[in-house]
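hiii, so i know i said id send this last week but things got crazy w the move. better late than never?? heres the sequnce for the chain we talked about at the cafe, plus the structure i predicted for it. fair warning i was half asleep when i ran it
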Amino acid sequence: MSGHSKFANIKHKKEKNDAAKGKTFTMIGREIAIAVKEGGPDPANNSKLRDVIAKAKANNMPNDTIDRGIKKAAGDSSNVNYEVVTYEGYGPGGTAIIVDALTDNKNRTAANVRNCFSKGQGSIGTQGCVSYMFDKKGQIIIDKEECDMEADDLMMSALDAGAEDFSEEEDSFEITTDPADFAAVRDALEQQGIAMTQAEVTMIPQNYVTVEGEADLANLQKILDMLEEDDDVQTVYHNWDE
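okay and structure toks below
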């Protein structure tokens, strides 16, 4: 992702989603429940739960809300029936889209996601049809305004902890890691008191696609907006150069 900052888009999304913060917290709560069910309620012994907690903090979820979610999930883990499902497809202008969802009804979610694509003149593809165009990476984004550390010192801290790449953009620092090293790098930065705007394992496009034409742009935005509004959809990745 070096040289292609998405920080402005991230800030825009956070501002846009302030009104929908309740939905965001609900989505993260589901992820907490699944992580607790799979690995137990102790973050020290559950790396997946640590990752979800980091994501929760990056989304400004209060600590007491996180703790309540963990305790609730530990108390009724046998009732957690959400499944992780992934859909891949094509949007207008040759864009590639990956949709991660958490659902208690796969038929409902599949129909809803398919409808989002068709309404925007896109199409659902088979598993793996576009994911090869993305790299799965740990990604940490730090707002320059919230970081007192010099760029060189931050870079050395990240690389010493196991990061693969460090880049300085106009308004942010971006750190990428192998997914297996993400937790260690994030923990090392957290122990130094470094505030992170985003900290999660994500799918980073190998190349970005420019979409031209008002109709294609409108249809692509329709797909993304509809997916964002779907309660089952957790994350949407795409290679559109916004």
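btw The radius of gyration is 18 Å. thought thatd interest u
miss u guys!!
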